[in-house]
Amino acid sequence: MTNPISDGIWPTMITPYNSSNKIDYSALEKMIDWYIDRGVDGLFAVCQSSEMWHLSLKERRELTNFVAKTTAGRVPIMASGHVADSLDDQIKELQLLADAGVGAMVLVTNRLAALHESDDTFKTNLDRIIRALPETLPLGFYECPYPYKRLLSPELLAHCEETGRFYFLKDTSCNLNHMRAKMEAINGKLKIFNANAATLQESLKIGISGYSGVMANFHPELYVWAVRNWRRGDDLVDEAFDMIGLASVIERQFYPVNAKYHMQLENLPVELYMRGADISQFTDSEKIEVQQLRRTIKRLMERLLQ
């Protein structure tokens, strides 16, 4: 099978809610158009940015299905969303989600083995999951940081690629040496995407296929421009990547609320509500930082597109 995951920018989508704490599908529809209008290459739905740990299985399925229907083939989508502790429950979740119209199903690495368990346990559990899912369904991995970060070793990644089922890895190591070792261990069927902004430029030089991370919820157009032009290697490209790295420190603030606030500034009808934190803790100074970031990126984009 040809890899269905295109190189480039895959935002980790956030979930909008209304004042009743329900998913706001009207706002989500406009968000999807906003991502696509800014040139993203695909969408990663139902992930940590989506607050998948705070969504019911019914909501995760409905959310996945809505994104698939709304994109209507304009860009490919992939989704995660298996959050259960027991493997049997995870398989049930994945089977239900796999039928929601995604182009690829992404497995969360820390769900396949506990913190104290070995890669052998990971392989055993992975084999059960693979056998339970349709053979024609492309699979991927997400090294989700919560509840603990389980990075795949180069050897384990190579083993997974050899199954012939895996096409994607969202790497969260934030470490170029780790990414390089993974790249050297695989044969090219599986694509690795970097979730870290600061290392993105150098990671592209070693063969990383693109970016899949939270900052594409703020200024996906900057990432699109940078990843499509990085081979130029001129001062303007370097400036774009310097800004990408510097701007990413804002993700350590009140994310994803600050990303939703940024979307409000982009005239999207997105409320700030989230389920995992008290949004009253989002301060005025944090709002000003988002405003300043947006103005700075807008000025830079004007120069990049001249």
- CATH fold-level label: TIM Barrel
- Please indicate the count of domains: 1
Q: Write the CATH architecture name.
A: Alpha-Beta Barrel
Q: Structural class of the helix and strand makeup?
A: alpha/beta
Strand proportion: 5-15%
H/E series: EHEHEHEHEHEHEHEHHHH
Terminal-residue CA separation: 40 Å
Q: Any idea what the shape is? A: globular
Average pLDDT, to the nearest integer?
97
Write a compact overview of the structure shown.
Helix content is 43%, strand content 9%. With 306 residues, it is of the alpha/beta class.
Overview of this structure, please?
This protein is of the alpha/beta class and 306 residues long. It has one domain: Aldolase class I (TIM Barrel). The chain is 43% helix and 9% strand. It contains 11 helices and 8 strands. An 8-stranded parallel β-sheet has the order 1-8-7-6-5-4-3-2. β5 (139-142), α5 (154-162) and β6 (166-171) form a beta-alpha-beta unit. α8 (220-229) runs antiparallel to α9 (235-247), α9 runs antiparallel to α11 (284-304) and α10 crosses α11. It is globular, with a radius of gyration of 19 Å. 40% of the residues are buried.
Keywords:
11 helices, TIM Barrel, 306 residues, 8 strands, alpha/beta, eight-stranded parallel sheet
